[in-house]
Design a protein that fits this description.
The protein is α/β, with parallel strands linked by helices and about 625 residues long. The protein contains 24 helices and ten strands. The chain has a six-stranded mixed β-sheet with strand order 6-7-8-3-9-10, with helices on both faces. It binds adenosine-5'-triphosphate. It is a multi-pass membrane protein.
């Protein structure tokens, strides 16, 4: 019962439904006890004394009792349903709320299919038990108690003889519970694994098809399906073994009653009416015992399901508001960000993704982060909006440690355009306005224009009312990115983070978007993560990272003059231009002499390259009919 104690807050407020449902069921049970007494009266008093005129009255009484029983049965059913459904509603709300606040750390490992099965199948099992199962179990005890009292009042010796087999039944039922509970846990686990497989297959259908992995996927699913089936077969085996045994012990009581009761009736220790009444009363005892397997099954299933719900509900939230955390005043936020000796690793045993990182980003500055894949760029910005918590060092916003302010007020000052764009299956308008509260169509269009999304949106049949598919399916990667950029711009944040935000657009569009950015970057601190030098060369400071450590920092012009990763990247990206080795000896063919290359020449080279890439990409997009 520990699990249900833990879940108490979700059903306790609905206890009135439980009380009404219980009272109705008690009435139904009580009315059920009228039948054996009517039988006894019919045989011993009416038939034995040949007072047949009383038979119609007795028949009407039975009819009346049946009708009353039906009414209370109905009331019990509807109040139980109210109890179960209201509890499920409360739980669903709580689970969903919890999912909103669970940290990024949780989602790094969480599986969508598994979570979905917790929110559906597990929740339903708990609903069924709290709504119906629990009341039924109490009713079983009541039927047993009432039945016993009546039987004892008729003949205590026959009662004891009849119930001699009951301890065996109870013992078997307890053993059954011990075996069936783990079996149900396995079923639920394999069910969630199977659901995850289906969900991942549907989400990743493009990858599956492009790699022609359908046979592998079918095989993988077959394995999980077999696992699920086998767990069900094992459970059915346990059920098949115990159920007849329990039925056998239950029916043993009938055998004992017929033997001992028949003998007592023959020798006159009980009347025939009492024997018949006893026979119907034994049903009152056997029926609940017989159904005990079902109730145990129901209970164990919902207990296993409840445990899985509690796992989510009680899951530790790694990043949360401190007690007395301050709420940032949006009008006072300047956007001065500082990282001071920040070190962070994703797991205890993992090496730091970022080590001893320092950065001073004055309000309104533009910071570029460059580095190879896995060098820690995204980690830096994730720490800034507290997706994760840095263990060493501190990050401040306008001098305040970001751990001292509420997550909501911190994040409302930051807009992030992620590497992977997520769009909701809703209209483009709603996707752009996401998180911005009440905004006008003009504001949405303005943001879309800055993000160079307006023109392609207007070419869609329904414009801003076009509903995009799940995760934005139906749009190209670049189009999705532009919508995501518009979404961030609409928020009008103090801090703007562009995490490889233009990776999916062509050079030409990137150039155009950047012109838009220049306008929106004014007065806000901007962090740009990019692989293309052209995306961050205007930054006030460019930080070059390698393996979580800063290896170079400076402006574009400063870094170009120093041999190192930045210059190497520049040379690779502008590879068909003369190689730059500004502060070193001219080394290979085509090397521009260091002392003769001026920043004007760099600009010229970049311009030539940008124009060239732009021409290539625009002729490519035109050829493919993708002109934007
Ligand atoms: N959620 C995570 N859980 C565990 N390790 C992670 C997680 N995210 C990143 N890492 C690890 O941290 C390191 C830095 O990753 P990060 O995403 O910051 O790199 P990045 O420079 O942004 O790379 P990219 O350019 O490929 O996006 C990598 O070694 C990566 O494997």
């Amino acid at each position: 019962m520990y699990v249900f104690k833990q879940l108490r807050e979700y059903y306790w407020s609905e206890r009135r439904y439980f009380v009404i449902s219980m009272l109705c069921l008690m009435t139904v049970t009580g009315l059920g006890l009228v039948y054996p007494n009517l039988f006894r009266h019919l045989i011993d008093n009416v038939i034995a004394n040949e007072r047949y005129d009383q038979v119609p009255l007795l028949a009407f009484m039975v009819l009346g009792v049946m009708a009353l029983k039906a009414v209370f049965q109905f009331l019990h059913g509807s109040y139980s349903a109210k109890l179960g459904n209201q509890t499920a509603y409360n739980l669903r709300e709580a689970l969903y709320r919890k999912l909103q606040f669970l940290s990024f750390q949780y989602y790094d490992k969480a599986k969508t299919g598994d979570l979905m099965s917790r929110l559906t199948a597990d929740l339903q099992a708990v609903r069924d038990f709290i709504g119906f199962g629990f009341v039924q179990i109490i009713n079983v005890f009541m039927m047993f108690t009432f039945g016993m009292i009546m039987m004892l009042s008729i003949n205590w010796k026959l009662t004891l003889i009849t119930l001699a087999a009951m301890p065996f039944l109870v013992f078997t039922a307890i053993r059954f519970e011990g075996r069936i509970h783990p079996a149900f846990r396995l079923i639920r686990k394999s069910m969630s694994t199977m659901t995850t497989t289906v969900q991942e297959n549907i989400t990743g259908v493009r990858t599956v098809k492009s790699f022609a992995r359908e046979p592998h996927e079918i095989e993988k699913f077959a394995e999980r399906n077999t696992d699920y089936k086998e767990n069900n077969v094992i459970t059915s085996g346990i059920w098949a073994k115990f159920f007849p045994l329990m039925e056998l012990f239950a029916n043993l009581s009938v055998v004992l009653l017929i033997g001992a009761g028949g003998w007592m009736a023959i020798n006159g220790s009980i009347t025939l009416g009492e024997l018949v009444a006893f026979y119907s009363l034994i049903g009152y005892i056997i029926q609940p015992m017989w159904g005990i397997g079902f109730h145990i099954n129901n209970y164990t299933q919902s207990k296993a399901a409840g445990e899985r719900l509690l796992e989510v509900l009680h899951h530790y939230v790694h990043v949360k508001n401190k007690e007395n955390a301050r709420v940032l005043n949006p009008d006072k936020v300047q956007g001065h960000v500082r990282f001071e000796g920040v070190t962070f690793a994703y797991g205890e045993s993992q090496k730091p993704a970022i080590a001893d990182f320092d950065l001073d980003a004055p309000a309104g500055s533009v910071i570029g982060l460059l580095g190879g894949t896995g060098s820690g760029k995204s980690t830096i910005i994730q720490l800034l909006f507290r997706a994760y918590q840095a263990k060493e060092g501190r990050i401040t916003l306008d001098g305040q440690d970001i751990r001292d302010v509420t997550l909501e007020s911190l994040r409302s000052q930051i807009a992030v355009v992620f590497q992977e764009t997520f769009l909701f299956s809703s209209t483009i308008r709603n996707n752009i306005a996401y998180g911005a509260g009440a905004v006008t169509q003009e504001q949405i269009e303005h943001a879309a224009r800055l993000a160079k999304a307006h023109d392609f949106i207007m070419e869609l049949p329904l414009g801003y009312d076009t509903v995009v598919g799940e995760r934005g399916l139906g749009l190209s990667g670049g189009q999705k990115q532009r919508i995501a950029i518009a979404r961030a711009l609409l928020l009008n944040p103090k801090i703007l983070i562009l995490d490889d935000a233009t990776s999916a657009v062509d050079m030409e569009t990137e150039h155009e978007i950047q012109q838009g950015f220049e306008e929106v970057m004014k007065d806000r601190t901007t962090f740009i993560i990019a692989h293309r030098i052209s995306s961050l060369k205007h930054a006030d400071e460019i930080v070059v990272l390698d393996n979580g450590r800063v290896v170079q920092r400076g402006t574009h012009e400063q870094l170009l003059k120093i041999p190192g990763p930045y210059q190497d990247t520049y040379n690779i990206q502008f590879s068909d231009q003369p190689v730059l080795e500004l502060d070193t000896e001219p080394a290979s063919i085509g090397v521009a002499p260091a002392d003769t290359t001026t920043s004007d020449q760099h600009a010229q080279l970049e311009e030539q390259q940008a124009l060239k890439e732009s021409a290539v990409s625009s002729s490519y997009t035109k050829r493919r009919g993708l002109a934007t």
